[in-house]
Structures are given as C-alpha cells and as structure tokens.
Specification:
The chain is of the alpha+beta class. The protein is built from 14 helices and 21 strands.
Length: 441
Amino acid sequence: MSFSPEQPLEILRRYPAASNYRVALSGGLDSTVLLQALASVRAQLPGPLSAIHVDHGLHPDAPRWQAHCAALCAKLGVPLESRRVKVIPAPGESLEAVAREQRYGVFREVMQPGDALLLAQHADDQLETFLLQALRGAGVRGLAAMPESAGFGGGLLLRPLLGFSRAELEAWAQAQGLAWVEDPSNADTDLDRNYLRHEVLPRIRSRWPAAADTVSRAARHCADAAETLKTLAAEDWRRYGAGETLPVAALYELPEPRARNLLRHWLEARGLPLPPAHKVTEILLQGRAAEDRNPCVDWAGAEVRRYGGLLYAQRPLPEAPAEFRLQPGVSRSLGQGLGDLTLVPAAGEGIRASLCGPEGLRVAFRSGGESCRPAGRAHGRPLKKWLQEMNVPPWLRDRLPLLYADHELLAVAGLFACEPHATRPGEAGLRIEWRDHPPLT
C-alpha cells in the first residue's frame, strides 16, 4: 500500500474534531512526513495545525535539528513551539525512559482541552514495541503496544501512521523531495530497540514479510483483552468499595488472576507506578500474612502496607521533619507525601487563638510518653493508646504533627484538639489544616 496525505486525514476524521492538531516534530523522517502530509490537506482539518519540538540536549547536533524544524515549519506556514528539557537520569534509570518522560511532560504542558497530539509512530515501530514488550515479559496491556488513540492532557493522543511501514513513508518523502534529519544514536545497537531494528527484524521480515501487519493485529487483540480486564477490575473495585485503601478480603475471595488484576487497577487509580510481577505476588502473600503483622512491599516509587484488614498504597514516605514553628496563615510542607500544614484563623474552630504567641506554635513529632485528653473525651490517656484506638496506621503515628504551646500538647493534626485547649463557640480560634496527608484512619 502506498502512502498519501488523504489516508492519515481519513484516520483523524474517525475522532471528534480537535481545537488544535499538534504534531510532535523531531525532524526525523516519520514526523516530517506527518507534518508535510497534513499541511498539504490542512484546509480539510476541522482545526488549526501546529507543531511542537522538544530538544533533549543530549546530542551536539540538537541545535541543528531544532533549526531544521523551524525552517520546515516556516516553509509550510505552520506555527512551531520549541522547548528544551534537561534529561538527568537517577542511578539505575534508563536515559531513554527519562527522556521520554520529559518529552511527554512538555506535551502535557502545551495541550489545551480539546487538542489532539499527533505522534508519527508507524507499523515498524509497533512491531518493535510489541516484541520488546514480549521480551520483557509484559502482559496483555504491554503487548497492546501503542494504541491508535488515547486520552491525553485533556484531549486526544492520535497515531495516524500506524497502518504504514517506514518504507512506504520514505518512498513518499523521496517522491516529494523532502529532507529530514537522522539521529546517529538510532544506529547504536547497544540500545535494545536499535539492536532489534537492525539485527533482528531484517531476518524476521525475510521469513515473514507481513510480520508488521500480523503483529499489529495481535496487538489489537491484546488491547481488546486489556480493555476487558479493565472493565472487570472496575467491577471488582466497586464490589469491594476500594478507594484510598483496598480490603484484604479481596485477596482471599477473588481467584488469584483476578486479585492481581484488581491490585494493578487500584495502584494505577492511586497514580502509582505499577509493580513488577514478582512484587504483585509478594503483595498477595504478605496481604494474607498473620493479622498481628504489618508487612510492607516496596518497589521504585511506591509501597503497599497492610494494617487492620486494609491495604494502603502510597509513595514511600519521608521521615518526619525536625520540629519547627508555625505561624497563622503560613503553610509549611512536611515533605513529599506528608502534605502541608497551615493554621487558619476561624471563630469557634480548632484551638484557642490566644495560645499562639508571636513566634507561632511549636510543631513536633512523637518521641514517646505524650499524654492528652481529646476534646469531648472524659479522661486523659497516653497518646499511643488514643492512636491505637483510632486505628491510625503504625507507620503514620510518628509522622503526625503535634502542636504545642511551650511544652503543652494542644492538638494532633488531622485527628483532634486537646482539652482544655479546644475553641469554644464564638471564640477566636485557629483551624489546623493538614492538606494532602496520607489516610489517617
């Protein structure tokens, strides 16, 4: 099948009209073809056409590539937005993966509601992605590879070239006399994708010429299966009333494959990175551990803990900060994942404002031996006992902000004010706002 500009246009017409069609332009063959093709039929697009170029700063020729994109867009009369990012992988992180994350972060920033981001991946890219996912042991979701469409940044992400091979795109580009840039890193066979592209796929195509088409079909089957699993997980989610926490009962009552499916759905809904398969197995095993244990399973960027018949999923929490002073109206971050603490003047709420001196209140964290009487309770007890009674997860008990006037405990943020320091009706008070904290009970 030969390529023509009308074909990607027809694919775009399958989807709701976009307020802006933004082509991700690297300057390479694929994105150059996509931009040139759509520019030639832009009068038939429901919305304006523009391009965005991301400079990762990883190659000395990057300024030349940016200049090439600017010249191409100027020639076509297409608005171009260029952004530069810094790609600094942490130890053990993939440079390619971090660059991709930075690139998509830029795409999200520029997207407006109703926009369509157009990516130029083609059938050969789809074949590579499927095989790489299979070699990494991916499930049906990973083997679904790259969908033609997906929600993204309040709009749509579309890949209108997935039905075409690189050879077809190159033939059209040469017939049109197009110029494009070549990234020399694409020839580095130390990278998995390049090794597959240059060393493996030529042999596959010589034996199975239609490999890209048949694998694309397999990817669509996997996408259908993944969508079915997503629907099933949503049903189990509603059944168990899962939200910030997940009942351990789900791990007992569901067949293991279905419990795994629900776990992944729950973690994704919490905005956490998905665990490798062996970590999912560990969560299932630890979730069924003895009731008097509070196990933790962690992986890069996330952890799952169990307490009181519930699973808690979160990013790894920092240690509690050193004690500090907090004045009314000033917000203080407690660290990534622990939220922000603020004292807000409010009549009849929180603790009595008169307790706050000119330097503010002292905020500290448990060191042991604290006692108090929560407002409305008849007697005092050690704070440790109150936290146990309120089912505060053990890993949060030493991270609860405790507010003091000198050495007198006034309140435990997120839980209660202490007697006799709670504000009376109509009295000037300070409401303790602890925003974005982990689930406390």
